[in-house]
Amino acid sequence: MIFNIIKTLHIFSVISWMAGILYLPRIFVYHADPNISKETYSTFKVMEKRLYQFIMLPSATLTWLTGIAMIHFIGLEIWLLVKIFFVLLMSIYHFYCLKWLNNFVNNNNPHSAKFFRLRNEVPAVILICILVLVVFKFF
After folding, report:
1. How far is CA 81 from the centre of its chain?
2. Count of beta carbons in the 10 Å neighbourhood of residue 69
3. pTM over the 0.85 mark
């Protein structure tokens, strides 16, 4: 029963985290457009900060906590260690998003919309790797 509650929380937090981590760089694409108005630029700042602070950070934290808690029940297997590696990569990407967000907050973004368009694909690739490991549990 406890395991199923933890697993449910884990799935919910992963979905929330991935929604944010896939959406934030998409906002960056539009935010990096040099032709947007000052008002739109300010609106994007608020959107990005709230998305990161109120959705991405809590859900990433809950994902890690519930994931670690589930290890107590299922143990460590090789597929899970590989999955944890990919989750670490996703976490690194998560903190790069914070770096990029802070660049916008400080009106110091050096990157183009194309830069963010390309970076927006990274979490999708990592997520596919994680899903394959979870579903097939190979290695």
Report:
1. 19
2. 16
3. yes
